[in-house]
Hints:
- The protein is built from six helices and eleven strands.
- The protein has 240 residues and is of the alpha/beta class.
- The chain has two domains: 9-122 and 158-226, Glutaconate Coenzyme A-transferase; 123-156, no CATH class.
- A hairpin with a 2-residue loop joins strand 6 and strand 7.
Amino acid sequence: MKNKVLGxxxxxxxxxxxxxxxxxGAMVMVGGFGLCGIPEHLILALRDSGVTGLTCVSNxxxxxxxxxxxxxxxxxxRKMISSYVGENAEFERQFLAKELEIEFNPQGTLAERIRxxxxxxxxxxxxTGVGTIVAEGKEQRxxxxxxxxxxxxxxxxxxxxxxxxxxFQADRAGNLTYRKTSRNFNPMMATAAKFVxxxxxxxxxxxxxxxxxxxxxxxxxxxxxxTKPEKRIEQRTVKK
Length: 240
């Protein structure tokens, strides 16, 4: 059994770089939903690596001083493939100034594009986005399904050079479990990249995890780092 645990996030990014997966112009998947379940230390290490021209696949773009907002601030991201980006003023500025290429996706379509990439499916058809700018320039077909014929638009699967994911715990073989909201994008991204790094809060011995409770099998994971998360609240709401 290979021990996949590395000492720091920087060491993990260096390992992915040595494998040719962290480089200028790479496609990087970054897990999380808003600020929940993001691999915050791996994002910092990716920023410090100095790579540029990145295409980032992520539900969100972080906020100005946290998450992917840090990579936007240093202008290391060339293109974002995202579904929700409404919390980042620098993202807005770069987008309106045409300094950042954006590929907006309906949220379910983004999730399915990632899942399809991990499953080896290059193209699929969905009714979501038909009749909107989402469908512009894409193949469309009339397809009979579930007793009705309607228009569907073709979407491509996504497969990245590297995926940075956040899990709750892992064993040394790379088997992962997630908690709650962090299961939205992290598990599917862990299947859809050449090199997968998992940032985790807890490390356990092999055999400790109940096989029925493992969300990502270790064969998908190349490196693990144990960190202490900050767990920011994106929009703090309190009762008056």
